[in-house]
Amino acid sequence: MNVLAAVGRNASVRTGRAAFRRRRRLRAGLLQLVSVGVGLGLGLAVPEIGRGPVLPSRQVAELLLATGFGVLGAATVIFSVLFLVVQWAATTFTPRLTLFRDAPIVWRTFAFVVGLTVFCATAALTLAGRDEVSVIVPVGAGVLLLLLLALLRSLLLQAVAAIQLAPVLLSVSERGRRGLDLLCAGGTGRGEDPGGPAGPGHPAGRGRPRSTVGWTGAGTVLQRVDTDRLAAAARAADAVVVLRVSPGAALRHGTTVAEVYDGELPASAVLRTLETGAERVFDQDPGLAFRLLADIALRALSPAVNDPATAVQAVDAMEDLLLRPAPARAREREVADRAGTVRVVVPQPGREDFLRTALDDVIPAARNSPMVLIRLRALLENLRGTGHGRADGPIGRRLAWVDDELDTRFPRLRETLAEERAEGGERAEGDAGRAEGDAGRAGEEHPDGG
Question: Gly residues compositional bias: what residue ranges (predicted)?
């Protein structure tokens, strides 16, 4: 029985998305809540300390109130820097770049500001009606203020790095490398068998699915899949769930999300394991790094910017990722339950998908830039020379595409490159011949190997 988005599916979608929204709100607000609690506790406990020298409580209370309200200005600095960096990254690099916005230092600094303000206000109110207070109270406030300055310094340094090209490319590349490593390792789900043969419970050859899970909510992006939770639900229903979309894919009304084989599994159980949002994230989406690097290169090659050197740097970062191990073509990852039975099948991208994202838009955009075309040709030659493309047609076709662009638009440059390669080959052969001659003479002079 095929079921595509039954009438009650809307409630299921809301249930799954609401659960993840609650988790995100909890993660975002938990740190601020903890900071408020710590500040309140310290504000009540520290003034009770009676050791050490004492100071007039009235002056200390005024100092604490001034510090607490003054620290609130740091929150304005944080959001001003955040707005500046986000706007700069969106207009200079790509609007999909959200590294600084999601950086932990931003929200940790804001949480510390809130906690310090609560501490100062609570301690000042606790001192009301007292004549003297230990010097530990203002000293503690001073130490916390110094810690806040250290956090602000780190925040500003990271903000400066977030508007510079090299640090941005490095950050994107690092996240892309982690995603590719997880892709080759089979991900992080328990009991996963990446690309292995079909085992018990595999849907291959089982005919039509028992049910189909469709998406009827508003347009969104699939960010993460909780494969462990989905495998547990499938095991309880003695079913196999085959996802038809992977993290990073856009979900539209009527999109087939998954197919359920063997057992009966409610659509709500599948949809609750999907985390969706307005934009792609790096966690389970290795293709996002290639998308961002391609966006940066395209922005640099636009007529309004015309900065081919930036595009070359983006291509350098692409090459570093493309040279890393990855499956040649898209494949399926199997997730097994604790008993070893395959319960979830998740589609995963391959090198062909990464090549398409990274290069297919950049090559035509670079047709008027010999610098970028030469760098793209070197990238493809390196891929073919390292074993990634010896039997891989996509690399050869893109190399021929770049050569055609060079032949059509820069024929003399193409001839110069061919001559330089020929001279380089002759020079290499000459160096090899001289090395063999030196070895032969050394053998004649020392026949005994001494």
Answer: 186-204
pLDDT tens, residue by residue, 392-442: 688 989 999 999 999 888 888 777 777 777 766 555 555 555 555 554 555
**Whole-number pLDDT of residue 426:** 53
Structure-token pair, residue 161: 């790095």
Contacts of 184 (CB under 8 A, 6+ apart): 194, 325, 326, 327
C-alpha 132/C-alpha 327 separation (Å) is 71
The domain locations on the chain are: 27-163, 174-409
Average pLDDT of the segment spanning 159-175: 95
* Crossing angle between the packed helical segments 57-92 and 136-162, to the nearest 10 degrees: 10
> Which residues, 6 or more positions from 240, have their beta carbon under 8 angstroms from its beta carbon?
201, 202, 203, 206, 234, 260, 261, 262, 263, 342, 343, 344, 345
Contact 113, 78 (CB under 8 A): yes
Pairing of strands 342-348, 240-243: parallel
Q: Each residue of 131-152: pLDDT tens digit?
A: 899 999 999 999 999 999 999 9
Query: How far, in Å, are 429, 436, 447 from residue 443 at the CA level?
Result: 21, 11, 5
Q: How far is CA 262 from CA 2, 206, 259, 266, 326, in A?
A: 13, 8, 10, 13, 32
d(CA 264, CA 362): 46
How many residues would you count in the chain?
450
Instruction: Output the CA angle 208-213-215, nearest 5 degrees.
Output: 140
Going by DSSP bridges, is the β-strand pair 256-261/211-214 parallel, antiparallel, or unpaired?
A: antiparallel
Look at residue 241 and give its three-state secondary structure: strand
Q: Give the chain's radius of gyration (CA, Å).
A: 30
Mind giving me the DSSP string for 118-146?
A: HHHHHHHHHTTT-SEEETHHHHHHHHHHH
